[in-house]
Structures are given as C-alpha cells and as structure tokens.
C-alpha cells in the first residue's frame, strides 16, 4: 500500500536536503584545503593523512553532488506540487457542487458515528474515483478526507 505524498512537503524536504548537503560538502572541502595548507594543523603521519584526505574529499564531493542534484529536481517537484494542488481544488469543488447535499443526507444503518464516517468517506471516494479516473487511490482518500473535514467541521462549528 502506498501512502499519499504531499508534493509541497516533498518540495520543502528536497530544498532542505539540497541546502544541507551543499553546505556540509562545501564547508568540508574548505576545511580539507585549510588542513592541506597547514592553516589547521593535524599531526598525523603521511600515510594516514593521505588516506584521510582521499576518503574525506570523496565524501564531501559526493555531498555537493547530492546537493546539486536536489537543487535540479526542485523545478519538477514545484510543477508537480502545483498540478496536485489544482487537481485537488478542482475535484473538491466538483464534488461539493454535485454531491454535497446527498452526502449530508446520507445516514448510517448502524448507530455509531464511526460507521457513518466510513460510509460517507466511502461514498466520497467512490464518486471521486468514478469521475476522476486518473486519481490514484491515495489521492482519492486524501481528497475525501479534505472534503469530509470541510463539510462536517463547518457544520459542527455552526
């Protein structure tokens, strides 16, 4: 089972990753250069210092590579986030315009509030998946939750 991925959160995470790896890699390389020119003295024998420089340089260059790759993927993630937001807004408005009254009139055969919630949620997901065939199951569930909260949280506060 896949989980819903909010593209806005993915964008923020990727941006944070890009900055973190780039900064750590850059600072690490600067420190290696300072050690190489003996501005920061390390008293190690020649064999150990060569091995340390080689391993650390590869590590910091890899960090910079990961940072750059993350920065380059931000454009695609931002585009995907905008599409996801527009799709959510469109499907939410469609459902509220066409099925809100039917959803409010839906009653449970059982007595519990949980059963009524599940029936209503199932109804929303069914209508969304029938009309928006390109929506994944995870997206339908997430949008159904948004719709449910908008309708019934608004009714509770009145």
Folded structure, characterized:
The structure is a single chain. The protein has one domain (about 5-155). The longest helix has about 60 residues, at about 45-105. The protein has helices at about 5-35, 45-105, 115-130, 135-155. It is built from four helices and no strands. The chain is mainly α and about 160 residues long. It starts with 6 loop residues before the first helix and ends with a helix.
Q: Which features would summarize this protein structure in a list?
A:
mainly alpha; single chain; rod-shaped; 158 residues
Itemize the secondary structure elements and their pairings.
Layout: H1 7-36, H2 46-105, H3 113-131, H4 137-156
Helix pairs in contact: 1-2, 2-3, 2-4, 3-4
Total number of helices? 4
Count the beta strands.
Answer: 0
Q: Give the overall shape.
A: rod-shaped
Oligomer: single chain
pLDDT average, as an integer? 88
Query: What's the N-to-C terminus distance?
Result: 37 Å
Q: What is the C-alpha radius of gyration, as a whole number of Å?
A: 26 Å
Give helix % range: over 70%
User: What percent strand?
Assistant: under 5%
Biggest sheet statistics: none
Strand/helix succession: HHHH
Overall structural class, as computed from helix and strand content, comes to mainly alpha
Stretches where pLDDT is under 50 for at least 5 consecutive residues are none
């Amino acid at each position: 089972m896949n989980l819903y991925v909010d593209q806005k959160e993915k964008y923020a995470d990727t941006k944070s990753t890009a900055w973190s790896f780039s900064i750590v890699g850059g600072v690490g390389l600067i420190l290696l250069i300072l050690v190489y020119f003996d501005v920061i003295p390390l008293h190690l024998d020649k064999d150990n210092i060569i091995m340390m420089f080689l391993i650390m340089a590869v590590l910091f260059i890899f960090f910079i590579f990961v940072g750059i790759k993350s920065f380059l993927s931000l454009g695609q993630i931002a585009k995907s986030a905008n599409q996801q937001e527009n799709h959510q807004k469109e499907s939410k408005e469609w459902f509220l315009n066409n099925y809100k009254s039917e959803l409010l009139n839906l009653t449970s055969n059982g007595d519990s509030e949980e059963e009524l919630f599940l029936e209503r949620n199932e109804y929303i997901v069914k209508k969304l998946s029938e009309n928006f065939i390109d929506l994944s199951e995870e997206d339908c569930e997430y949008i159904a939750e948004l719709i449910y909260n908008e309708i019934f949280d608004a009714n509770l506060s009145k």
